[in-house]
Amino acid sequence: MNDLIKTSIESRRNALFSAYDIKDSGNLKTIDDYFVKLEEFAKDCKDVTDFETKFMSSPLSKEYTDLFVQISQTECTTEGVAPTITENDEYTLQDELKDDAERLMRRKARQKAYDVARDIPVLDEALTAKQHFDFFSRFRKKK
Predict the structure, then answer these.
(1) What is the pTM of this model?
(2) Cα–Cα distance, 8 to 102 (Å, whole number)
(3) CA nearest to 96, candidates 85, 104, 88
(4) CB of 7 within 8 A of CB of 94?
(5) Which terminus of the chain has fewer Cβ atoms in its 10 Å neighbourhood, N or C?
(6) Which residues 6+ apart lie within 8 Å of 8 measured at CB?
(7) Is residue 61 within 8 Å of 55, Cβ to Cβ?
(8) How does pLDDT run across 71-103, given as a tens digit for each residue?
């Protein structure tokens, strides 16, 4: 399996654990089972682009979202919990790749939600109106 695919998978796992303080053994087992399936799915992908494209159209994508929902209902958020940093911690290229993969996944999730919203007639019109308002408000004279 490609290293970038591994990083993409790991960033999804990290997203769960950075958002929630997961202690329930049932949730931990569910997460582990999901990522075993995801890694098995990723073995057939030739590169990260192929993986991301196939993942978005696979049932595993919805299952990942459902996993977040399930965890959010049973676990506490990690908001306000500061990470422990030791003197030996460094920001490495691997961390940078992980951050890039997380940004890519967030952007794709936002785009998917936006596309779904655009398919709803009233919401589509509201989004178009807001888009036009934002564009033309740039040309307003400031007092």
Answers:
(1) 0.53
(2) 7
(3) 104
(4) yes
(5) C
(6) 48, 51, 52, 101, 104, 105
(7) yes
(8) 877 776 555 444 444 545 555 666 777 777 788
